[in-house]
Amino acid sequence: MASEENKRPRTRSMFDDLFELQPNRSLMDTMNDFFQNTMSKSIPVQVKESNDSYNLSVQLPGVAKEDIDLEMRGEYLHITVDRQQSITDTKAGYSSKKDMYLERRIRIPSDAMRQHMTARYDNGLLSISFPKVKGKKIDID
């Protein structure tokens, strides 16, 4: 006789996703994608590509510009938020400290001009733009 616990459907774990991501790739590639995508979803990023640039929109509501760090390391853009906030309420007689550390690593395509990257932060939205390398037109004789 089956118990009640055995009748419940099994919930998916992140390890189920690990082995179902892309079965035709090597185990190491699959694991890299899994950990990069699963562990870095705390900073939402939207990437849009146009004919002449790549544009990233990063949602960071409630984060001060001074708490955001952008750094290019090789072919990856690292976005880090490190915020420490102290809250003191003298009337209630308590104080607390809130720490927030978020990190996201995004691979930048090889045709992006990394040295011409621009970034702007306005009202919780970080906008990052990379112009694309323009190809050289070759005349045919």
How would you concisely characterize the structure shown here?
The protein has helices at 4-7, 14-20, 27-39, and strands at 45-49, 53-59, 68-73, 76-89, 94-107, 118-122, 125-131. The radius of gyration is 22 Å and the shape is elongated.
Describe this structure in words.
This protein is α+β, with helices and mostly antiparallel strands. It folds into 2 domains: 11-41, no CATH class; 44-134, Immunoglobulin-like (Sandwich), CATH 2.60.40. The chain is 17% helix and 41% strand. It has helices at residues 4-7, 14-20, 27-39; strands spanning 45-49, 53-59, 68-73, 76-89, 94-107, 118-122, 125-131. Strand 6 (118-122) and strand 7 (125-131) form a beta hairpin. The radius of gyration is 22 Å and the shape is elongated.
In total, the number of strands is 7
Structural class: alpha+beta
Shape: elongated
Overall mean confidence score, pLDDT: 78
State the CATH class of the largest domain. Mainly Beta
The CATH topology of the largest domain corresponds to Immunoglobulin-like
Please give the structural blueprint.
Elements: H1 4-7, H2 14-20, H3 27-39, E1 45-49, E2 53-59, E3 68-73, E4 76-89, E5 94-107, E6 118-122, E7 125-131
Antiparallel strand pairs: 1-2, 2-7, 3-4, 4-5, 6-7
Keywords:
141 residues, alpha+beta, Immunoglobulin-like, 2 domains, four-stranded antiparallel β-sheet, three-stranded antiparallel β-sheet, 3 helices, 17% helix, 41% strand, A-crystallin/Hsp20_dom, Small_HSP, HSP20-like_chaperone, Hsp20/alpha crystallin family protein
